[in-house]
Write a structure and sequence with these properties.
With about 160 residues, this protein is an all-alpha fold. The chain folds into two domains: about 15-70, no CATH class; about 70-165, Tetratricopeptide repeat domain (Serine Threonine Protein Phosphatase 5, Tetratricopeptide repeat, Alpha Horseshoe). It is built from nine helices and no strands.
């Protein structure tokens, strides 16, 4: 007798050795392999975080790169983060900045704008430049990204990259 929380279809799939999660993963894998950048990014995230799959940073990089090369801004930001932190690739701040910049400029992604601002603030992969950091924090803050709003606030409170009145 089916329980109240599992459909008959789910029970049939489980009886065949699949779970709803493995079926979803198979569908996502199929979409990703067919070139869908959103599915490629999602699959990369799953591998990066070990969600539904064995955690594997190199596999995450593979899928993020496929999506990023199709100008998918979220994947470009994710790929930048992987380079910044040396996850699945050798740590490389210049490559991190490259991917953050693509997502920040071409994709107008607020999270990437904030990440790029942080790189300028700390001189990672680019010459340290508080004015440039403020520029990127401001763009991200105007896009509603709360972490950038906090970063911009910190820059003002500490008189970094802004005129003191």
């Amino acid at each position: 007798m089916p329980d109240d929380h599992t459909s008959a279809e789910d029970q049939q799939v489980e009886a065949e050795g699949q779970t709803p999660e493995t079926e979803t993963l198979a569908q996502l894998q199929e979409l990703a392999e067919s070139g869908n950048p959103a599915a490629q990014n999602d699959l990369g995230w799953m591998y990066q975080n070990g969600r539904g799959v064995v955690q594997d940073d190199r596999e995450a990089i593979k899928w993020y790169r496929k999506a990023a090369e199709q100008d998918y801004a979220i994947a470009q930001d994710n790929l930048g983060w992987m380079y910044q932190h040396g996850r699945g690739v050798p740590q490389d701040d210049e490559k991190a900045v490259k991917w953050y910049r693509k997502a920040a400029e071409d994709g107008n992604l607020a999270k990437a704008q904030d990440n790029l601002g942080w790189m300028y603030q700390h001189g990672r992969g680019v010459p340290q430049d508080d004015v440039e950091a403020v520029k990127w924090f401001r763009k991200a803050a105007e896009g509603g990204y709360s972490a950038a709003q906090a970063n911009l606030d910190w820059m003002y409170q500490n008189g970094r990259g802004v005129e003191q009145v």
